[in-house]
Amino acid sequence: MSDRRLMRSLRTAFGVRRSPLRRAAGWLDENLGGGSRLLREELRHVFPDSWAFFLGEIALYCFILLVVTGIFLALFFHASQAPVVYHGSYQPLVGVPMSDAYSSVLDLSFNVRAGLLARQVHHWAALVFVAALIIHLLRMFFTGAYRRPRRLNWVIGLSLLILVGFNGLMGYSLPDDLLSGAGLRIAYSITESIPLLGPTLASLMFGGQFPTSGIIARIYPVHIFLLPAGIAGLLGLHMGMLWLQRHTELPGPGRDDRTIVGTPMVPAYALRTSGYLMLVAGVLTAFGGLLQINPVWLYGPYTPWDATTSAQPDWYMGWLEGAVRMFPGWDIQIGGFLLPAVFWPAVVLPGLIFTPLFLWPWLDGMALRDGAFHNVLTLPSERPGRTAIGAGFVTFLTVLLVAGGDDVFAKAFGLSLPVLLRTLQVLFFVAPPIVALLTYVVFRGRAQRWLATGR
Amino acid sequence: MDRSAVHNGERRGRCFCRASGRPRLRPLAQLCVVLVVVLAVAGPAGASPQASPSPALEASASANPAVEAPGDPAAKVFAENCSGCHGTRGEGGVGPPLAAAGFASLVAPMVAEGGIEMPAFGEQLSDAQIQGVAEYVAAHIADPASHEAVVADGGEIYRLYCAGCHSTTGRGGALTRGGNAPDISRYPAAEALAAMILGGGNMPAFAGNTLDVRQQTAVGLYVGVLVDPPSPGGRGLGYLGPVTEGAVSAIALLILIFLAVWLAWESRTAAP
Amino acid sequence: MSDRETGTHGTPPVQGGGSPPGWPAAIGLLATVVGAVGFVVAFVTNASTAWLGGSLAAALLGLGVALAYWGRDLAGDEVISGPYPAPHDDVPGAAALGGDLEQSAHVITRRRLLSKFLVAGLGVFALSQVVILGALGPRPGRSLFVTAWRPRSRLVTYDGQPVTRDVLAAGGTLVAFPEGHTDAADSQIALFHFIGGELKAQPGRETWSPEGFVAYSRICTHVGCTVAQYMDEAQMLACPCHQSTFDLLDGARPVAGPARRPLPQLPLAIDPQGYLVAQSDFTEPVGPGFWDAG
Lengths: 455, 272, 294
Fold this sequence. Notes:
The structure holds 3 protein chains of 3 kinds. Chain A is built from 17 helices and 6 strands. Chain A has helices at residues 2-14, 20-31, 36-43, 55-74, 100-110, 115-143, 151-173, 178-192, 198-206, 215-245, 265-290, 296-299, 318-326, 343-368, 384-404, 406-413, 417-453; strands at residues 46-47, 83-85, 97-99, 259-264, 332-334, 337-339. A two-stranded antiparallel ribbon of chain A has the order 1-4. Chain A has a two-stranded antiparallel sheet with strand order 2-3. Chain A is globular and about 85 Å long. By secondary structure, chain B is mainly alpha-helical. Chain B has a domain at 73-227: Cytochrome Bc1 Complex, Chain D, domain 2. In chain B, 45% of the residues lie in helices and 3% in strands. Chain B is built from 8 helices and 4 strands; from the N terminus they run E-E-H-H-H-H-H-E-E-H-H-H. Chain B has helices spanning 27-46, 73-86, 104-113, 127-141, 151-166, 189-198, 213-227, 242-264, and strands at residues 11-12, 16-17, 173-174, 180-181. In chain B, the strands form 2 sheets. Chain B has a two-stranded antiparallel sheet with strand order 1-2. In chain B, strands 3-4 form a two-stranded antiparallel sheet. Chain B starts with 10 loop residues before the first strand and ends in an 8-residue tail after the last helix. By secondary structure, chain C is of the alpha+beta class. Chain C has helices at residues 23-44, 49-75, 91-109, 112-129; strands spanning 80-83, 155-156, 174-178, 189-193, 213-217, 229-231, 236-238, 245-247, 253-256, 265-266, 268-270, 276-278. Chain C has a 5-stranded antiparallel β-sheet with strand order 2-3-4-5-10, with no helix packed on it. A 4-stranded antiparallel β-sheet of chain C has the order 6-7-8-9, with no helix packed on it. In chain C, a hairpin with a 6-residue loop joins strand 7 (236-238) and strand 8. In chain C, helix 1 (23-44) packs antiparallel against helix 2 (49-75). Chains A and C meet through helix 6, helix 8, helix 9, strand 4 and helix 11 of A and helix 2 and strand 1 of C. Strand 4 of chain A pairs antiparallel with strand 1 of chain C, so a sheet runs across the interface.
């Protein structure tokens, strides 16, 4: 500190101008109507520290990377299904009729410098984005961060997950390749299966009976503008609330619901989080440069009479795919009308999964009769019941996820596909309660030890 | 800054003891070293012009099927090695007919490496002999219509008839009642072509009435692309699609979580 | 959890002293510069994606290591604490806000009837705008119940060649469309030829399979994927999407997988010139089920 005082007196003595940062602070204060006191406090904004609190940042930085690479891609992609005959540099497709959209993705991949890099970074970032969101959500769940006053933020976060999932689905459908085109057909049929309104809804969504020549053009503004705007808006709310309410903290010395202990934002936290942004971008760029993803030139353009095996959506839709594969053909005839079986795994099941998730803060509060404000987290070992329910839920989704790729797993591990399917159908019912029970027993033991000995 | 206040011998977790605090190669630095090494290896391997990742597709050397040079050594090689199974004029016998063998690029790898039932001739014939007999077969034994095959047509037919079982990448796939449609990228393309024409087991036959010779050859050419597909984007990750890609993205997430653990490692405010 | 222990494990604290060694950050920044230059070189020379991505990644990771390392070492320096926003409801504050809101709204709410009209008007207006959704696409109408097949439509292959009775002489399968409609996705069929009498008779469909030729829709009745997996020995047609499997000898009824309805069969005939033709369109909707299909 004495250095600074010395410098200051020296400057005053010699009439030297203020440093750039001081001048900037003065300018800000003038133009923000005297907000400098608030800004000064916020420089010292306290961030509790734990590796587990970086998980949301992985998601945030993936989003930034997606927007940056997405802008680049949008400058080259043609969102049109107008038929063209390919005459580009990829020999095995020369002379093949395809949509302008698919052709523009081939050009991006083979002829635009850094085009393939941008495509691959974009796709890897999307996969990691959803994974990070889910891990972040699980961290919230297993530490009780959703409790009052953060219940609304939990709902916002869950909505973000849904928007991001949909945006990813639309994103990988844009190239109009065989794999994603089959996915659009499935989406159309699932919509059709809704009672009463299904066929009309499907026709409205797609602009007619599948296949339509306008679906890519329709998906495009949703993917590059509508959903990202929604995501950005909700994200702003999400982080704004985080800022106002302060981040939760893990239990420890000097911490209680009234006192937050942590690192100030400037300089340590700001440096680390900007460093983390670069690290996330760097890892994803390495993946995008070195590991091939979504080689659409091998899949070929979408035509409704082609098909491929090992056909899965991107991993985060795998649970839905698994549910559709495992659910038997239990069509229901109601008088002269048909309720197709796929309605249950594809429309009802997601509702059954997300509704209790949305309501969880209130369900948890009611079950524990605890509507108080909480700023200190509870560790998984302190709430064995919640941990067990979470573990069972994760197991349930994992069984669905594995079922979504059952033919690939069967081939890769030399298993018989019908046997694997039957096994997974049994595990669907048996595995979640067993895992939940085991988790409860393990964590209840730890909880009791913790209560007794304090460690 | 007094580091002794930071490194105060606290116990962290179960695996690390911050006893000495001496500098050691941090996990992140290890990662950097690994990345540099990987780049040093992958760079030259991947450094090629972006423009044309397509394989070279040769036309047969001599386009006139009727004229054979007298005393052509390739004809002799054919007569001695191939006609026993494929017939003196390639009409078939123990081995399949060679009507669709109109491209040396289809024939040569098959002769050199062999297939499931066809022996390999790479040991007993020189490279020049193999190339010579391949061009001979393409020019004089194969049906002339075979020369008109275009790889892109083959791709369209492949995606219409073959990809449903063998996948667009040719890696095969599990069948719904057990068993697999085989990975056709493991053998020379001519093996898949022969299997396609003859059928066998659950594999249907796509003979002359279903697909004509030109179409059959085109599929053979396209399978040749799948045997060694262009991968300008880097390592191919097995060509099994989004399942593998999802698994690999989990690895990326684990790396990032590891980095987060490293970031928060030193922090005194991190809870024990 | 235990309280934080400070140097009580019998190990001496580090006597390094001073600022942290700068070499990790320096190496990181060096990597940043090398990576950035490398990226420019790779871009200008049109190098492969691996070089472009690798150099860019090195630059980003280097910067990340430098910043993160700096910040990480500073993180231990300063521990501050502060107050959380009041952990209990600000009851007087919320009450005051509620009162203010009520007062401001009183201007409208005191006119009870008019307020009801306002709500009703807004509601009707909002609902009326839903009709705009109708611009997005046509009502399905009969489109889901008809394909491009007509009586005496000739079968043609994907490249327009008419299908004759000798086409499947060696076995196998053929994909066919109505003549002139090789782009009609809903009309695609898979043609088979069973000559040994293996075909089981389907009631009411005795004339549909002339000379053992049988044709089924290729659109899966589960969720509409193309049923492309023909297993010759088992005489099954399976769908690669969710593994529905259809018995070709028994009216393409599903024997495995999540499909429920058989693949619709196209009634075939052979015309006097020897070409395969359709007798009529399918007698049921092709593809997945929907409400009105029952």
